[in-house]
């Protein structure tokens, strides 16, 4: 039995094709609806963040209060997008308190 794995871009479904007695069967990697998420090199993230900070410093004439304000806005917007994506993919209801929120996140992300 030979198997090959379809190359997937970040966030696409990962499927395995299995050959059984000359017939190709498409099978999900984990049949739970999960998608493949490629890992990003930590050095790339560090260099990208450093470049953004350096550009903001140049744009705001080294006014660090303004740079920090812009970084705060960027972080807030990224967090909002992550939350919206999580809620859209997990199909969960509203959380009543912080404990419920932590429980739902742990169940969905750690399963």
TrEMBL record:
PANTHER family in alphabetical order: TRAFFICKING PROTEIN PARTICLE COMPLEX SUBUNIT 3
Source organism, top-level taxon: Eukaryota
GO cellular component, one term: endoplasmic reticulum
Gene3D superfamilies per record: Trafficking protein particle complex subunit 3
Phylogenetic classification of the source organism: Eukaryota, Fungi, Dikarya, Ascomycota, Pezizomycotina
Subcellular localization, as worded in the UniProt entry: Endoplasmic reticulum; Golgi apparatus, cis-Golgi network
Keyword presence, Signal: no
Main location class: endoplasmic reticulum
Protein's name in the database: Trafficking protein particle complex subunit BET3
């Amino acid at each position: 039995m030979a198997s090959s794995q379809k190359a997937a871009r970040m966030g696409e479904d990962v499927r395995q094709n299995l050959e059984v007695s000359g017939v190709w069967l498409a099978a999900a990697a984990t049949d739970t609806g999960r998608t493949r998420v490629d890992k990003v090199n930590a050095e790339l993230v560090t260099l990208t963040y450093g470049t953004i900070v350096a550009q903001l410093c140049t744009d705001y004439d080294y006014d660090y209060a303004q740079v920090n304000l812009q970084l705060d806005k960027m972080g807030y917007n990224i967090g909002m997008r992550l939350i919206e994506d999580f809620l859209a993919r997990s199909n969960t209801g509203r959380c009543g308190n912080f404990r419920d929120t932590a429980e739902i996140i742990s169940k969905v992300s750690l399963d």
